[in-house]
Amino acid sequence: MPSTSSTSPELTKEERIERAARQAEEDMKIVELELSRWEAAPLVAVANSTNLVNFWNLNKYEFPLLYCIAMDVLPAQASAVSCERVFSSSKETCTLRRARLQPKMLEALQMLKFSFRQSRLSFMEGLITSEADYMIDGLPTEEELDALLGQGDYDTIESMARDSTWVLNFATQLDDSTE
After folding, report:
1. H, E, C per residue of 22-81
2. Cα separation, 75 vs 56, whole angstroms
3. Any idea what DSSP says for residue 126?
4. Using CA atoms, how far apart are residues 89 and 92, in angstroms rounded to an integer?
5. How far is CA 173 from CA 88, 142, 167, 176, in A?
6. What is the pLDDT of residues 56-65, one digit of tens each?
7. Rounded distance, CA 87 to CA 83, Å?
8. What mean pLDDT comes out for the span 67-86?
9. What are phi and psi of 85, to 5 degrees?
C-alpha cells in the first residue's frame, strides 16, 4: 500500500528544476574549491621520471574530483600512431570483396591478425615433425597396408619392401599365419 506521508509531497516540475539548479550550483562550488586548492598546492619536486598514475593514486583523497578526471585522461594515447596502425590494418581486411563482413566478424579477424603478428598465435606450432615421426615401427598391420594401397602410395610400400628387416619380419609373419 503506498504511503501518504505529509513530509514528502510530490514536487512540481518547476520545483524539481529549481532543486536541480541549486544542486548544480553546490556541485560547481565544490569543483571550484578543489581546483583552487590544487592551484594553491606547492609544486612537487620530481626525480628522473614522473609516474602520473602513482602521483594521482597518492593524491586521490586530497583531490578526488581531479583524480577522477586524471584517470579518464591518462589512458589516452599521446600520439595517433597506434590508432593509425589499427585503421591501416582494417583497410587490408575491409576490401571490396569483404564489404558484407559483420562487425563481430571484422573484430574477430582483426584480433586474429594482431595475435598472429605478435607471434602469440601460430598455426604451424606442433606441426613441424621429423622424418622419424613418419616411420612405421615394426610390421605394418593389414589395415595400414590396405590404406597405403587405397591411397596409391606405392612408393612407401616399395621403400618398406627394400628394407630387408621388414621383408624378413613380414615373411616370418606370413609363415606363422599359414601354419
Report:
1. HHHHHHHHHHHHHHHHHHHCCCCCCCCCCCHHHHHHHCCCCCHHHHHHHHHHCCCCCCCH
2. 13
3. T
4. 5
5. 65, 12, 10, 5
6. 888 899 999 9
7. 6
8. 77
9. -60, -40
Tens of pLDDT, residues 4-16: 544 557 889 999 9
The half-sphere exposure of 120 on its side-chain side, counting CA atoms within 13 A, is: 6
- Is 90 exceeded by the pLDDT of residue 105? no
Show Cβ contacts of residue 72 under 8 Å, excluding neighbours closer than 6 positions: none
φ, ψ (nearest 5 deg) of residue 119: 60, 25
Using one digit for the tens of pLDDT, what is the confidence trace for 17-27? 999 999 999 99
Q: How many CB atoms lie within 10 A of CB 110?
A: 16
Mean pLDDT, the chain, whole residue set: 77
Cα–Cα distance, 68 to 170 (Å, whole number): 80
- The single-letter DSSP state of residue 120 is S
Q: Which of 63, 61, 58 is nearest to 36 (CA)?
A: 63
Give pTM, 2 decimals. Answer: 0.38
- 167 Cβ contact list (under 8 Å, min separation 6): 161
